[in-house]
Amino acid sequence: MTNTPTxxxxxxxxxxxxxxxxxxxxxxxxxAVRDLRLDMLLSAxxxxxxxxxxxxxxxxxxxxxxxxxxxxxxxxxxxxxxxxACEGFTAGVADVRRSLAVAARRRGxxxxxxxxxxxxxxxxxxxALSDGLGRAGIGSRGLRAAHDGLTRxxxxxxFTAMVAESRALRExxxxxxxRVSVRGHHVEIAEPIAGPDVAEDVAALxxxxxxxxxxxxxxxxxxxxxxxxxxxxxLVVMANxxxxxxxxxxxxGWQKVIDPAIAxxxxxxKFFLAYSAMMRGLGSHGVGFTCPELSAGEExxxxxxxxxxxxxxxxxxxxxxxxxxxxxxxxxxxxxVVTGPNQGGKTTYARMVGQLQHLASVGCPVPATAARxxxxxxxxxxxxxxxNRRSDVGALESELARMTGVIDAxxxxxxxxxxxxxxxxxxxxxxxxxxxxxxxxxxxxxMVVFVTFLPELVTAIDGAVSLVATTAPDDPSRxxxxxxxxxxxxxxxxxxxxERFGLxxxxxxxxxxxx
Amino acid sequence: xxxxxxxxxxxxxxxxxxxxxDAVVEDLRIRSLVDVLAAGDEYxxxxxxxxxxxxxxxxxxxxxxxxxxxxxxxxxxxxxxLYDLTTSAARIAxxxxxxxxxxxxxxxxxxxxxxxxxxxxxxxxxLTQQYLPACRSPGxxxxxxxxxxxxxxEFLNEATSALRTLSEEGGVCFSASLGHGLHLADxxxxxxxxxxxxxxxxxxxxxxxxxxxxxxxxxxxxxxxxFSSRATGRVAVVIASTADNLFTFFEELRWAAGFYTGCVxxxxxxxxxxxxxxxxxxxxxxxxxxxxxxxxxxxxDYPPHATVANTVSADGTRLLAITGSNGGGKSTLLRAxxxxxxxxxxxxxVAARAFTSGVRTGLFTLFAREEDESLEHGRLQEExxxxxxxxxxxxxxxxxxxxxxFTSTDEQAATRVIGPVLSALTDxxxxxxxxxxxxxxxxxxxxxxxxxxxxxxxxxxxxxVPTFEFEVGLPKHDEPQAIDVVRRMLG
Lengths: 515, 491
Hints:
By secondary structure, chain A is α/β, with parallel strands linked by helices. Chain A has 19 helices and 14 strands. Chain A has helices at 30-35, 38-45, 51-58, 64-76, 80-104, 108-135, 141-155, 157-174, 198-206, 227-239, 241-253, 260-283, 309-314, 346-361, 393-409, 427-444, 456-460, 490-500, 505-514, and strands at residues 3-5, 11-13, 177-183, 186-190, 293-295, 301-306, 325-329, 335-339, 370-374, 378-382, 414-419, 447-451, 465-471, 479-485. Chain A starts with a strand and ends with a helix. Helix content of chain B is 48%, strand content 15%. Chains A and B meet through helix 6, strand 3, strand 4, helix 9 and helix 10 of A and helix 9, strand 2, strand 3, strand 4 and helix 10 of B.
């Protein structure tokens, strides 16, 4: 458990439990993030410079308990009350940080005021979260422990004293007023008086002529105090020495406003809140999420109604409807080969399998109606690179080098997604290399999802599952984007090949007749 | 403060509207009449044009205007002075919206027009007081009372003095609390203290201290200006909205004065031309009767046309059908009726000795257009489309004027179409005035024997010369037009 003892000795634990310092694997490599298009997810989550959240999203968890721990928190955040309490809290902590940053840029009474503002907001936010979690129904171990810790923290003498002092000072400052007289270039200040309000008197006088608009609600002025305001403030401070001295002395004691454990709680929550917000956004476009059931591996992978999350994020919800797909692979079936025509959804499917496995492994809900799969230790990818466009020895060598890296890293709990690997190499060589690679991965025990134009691999690999990107039965040129377990269909495959090389009837006829 | 000269102030909700077709202005040739009544004043022309496109649908609103017309007709100098005064008010420079120049604060800009506005208010009050004994209309009496009550000398003096105090360069004095970030907040403007006294006061609270502001740079100058004007922000808004309220008040009055100028001029011109005129009698029923009715744009045209006044009696009528030979004055009568109805519903005088008519919920015209030469679908279809357009907007108690519908088209088809249309309209209490050559339609309708149908035909004197008067009756024998003309020319 990652806990940080607070000043009062109360313990407010974090929410991103990770049982051992080093898990089975390191996080997804940069290449893998791009291949699986999880960079789109990262950008949609808006973690920005928050390295910790990024790392947590990219590094698989070491054990099932860690996964369930996180899933429980996600489930709690489906509740409206919990969600609002947590969102309010993170917003409040962000406000506190902003006020502290402003305070650092000011001096004297101004600085102390901003520190007071930070302390006040801090007290409010922590109390509000503690109260909010208390009233809402929370079931997760994470939030329950956090709530217990918060309750003890809020009851501690340090915290209560800080809150009381900040309230008293705020009250005291609110009673301070000033009367300013400006004549020519001379500014004088004096004690405020309950004098006549000229604006109201004039409004009352002219009310008989016609309607006067209501006073506009006051908006907080932004930016620091100008020179003149500073000078006025200095005089006000002098005239109210006692109050400002008390403020200054209190501010000296508030050097560290945010307790580190509270800060960590706020940062952990940002992870969950960002992901939840993303899920709600996609939910309004009809994409539902579910917490997958993870096993130690004895059962296979069964997923219903799943989507490529990057595709969901990039579609604006108004265009063509997205097509959901299923995954059904038993624990004995370790190699899956996906074939079919161009643009039929093969790569999307393979990507989706990789995404599902990875997101499940970091304890996040996945875009599907139901999901069950083993806990993987890492997802490895082998996708084409720019250099692969030319087929020459140099390109093949670099492809092989990358593949070697993948093979070395693969374990029996890994998933490897290969997308058209070795397809630019001439036919027979490509086949041979691909077969060898798949055999090596299989003996390491990893699950392999292989998208390819080499359908012979299906028959050549023992026990390989054949998935085909289907086309409409009445119109072979229309892709359905459904991927199904099916024997390789030579005809469809041939059409895809022909299209890929511009050898369809129509294109040839057009091209030739133009000459 | 509402001027309320064109109608009683609305107590509950908007006044009932009379629907009107854009074609009405064209077909009834309103524009030339408006030009005559405007007599070169562009503003009056605008006002009359707008007023004639927004007829009233309320008897009391119409009679309200009549009363004012009578007062102004008897006191034209009052109207003239009112129009001039409100026009002068419209010319007072308004404060410009947008960024105030650095040297001017918003308060100073807001104050600028106030002096002249208040002066105009005083002069307006005095003017209405001067003519009050001569006025009997609720509109003008109400205006005078409003000004006497709200803008008496006490108020004007207080207002002037308040404005003077605000515009003095005596500096500002305000109270404030400490707000967000220790900015000054909750600013309350106080009256400036009297001239400087000794800064050090004896004893206790009231210890004052101050400093001088440097304005050696542009930045410092604008910061100082902004600081001082923060105190006066609210009061500047108050003054600016008061100025707006006064401008609006004078604009409404000017509009009304422009309208009545047109009405009074109409009476003058008709009087000078020796044409019978009256303030018509609006009713809530289906009345329609006129004595010595003419189309005012015809009689006021230059050079003046000789014209025959007509008498129509069609109370309770749903269909008034007018038939007869060409050049017999049918269209003129139709227009005269239309113009009279429209002007009545705008509260204006009418060129007749008497005109009594029900207030209609809508006024529509369908006149044959000569310029519709190049039609894609053929004239019949075009006309049907237009007719449908009008019917889509009809309500019970509307008035529709049809001038020679479906001429030069297939007469048989037209007959078959228009019969049922007429029945439908009249059955839902739409009043139709129809000028037509489709005698079959007329005869069928007459045979049906409905109550509320009136059939007029052009009168013919000896030797077949048209009299331009109308008599009740069905169209005479079906002589083709040509023979008519031949007979007339060759005797």
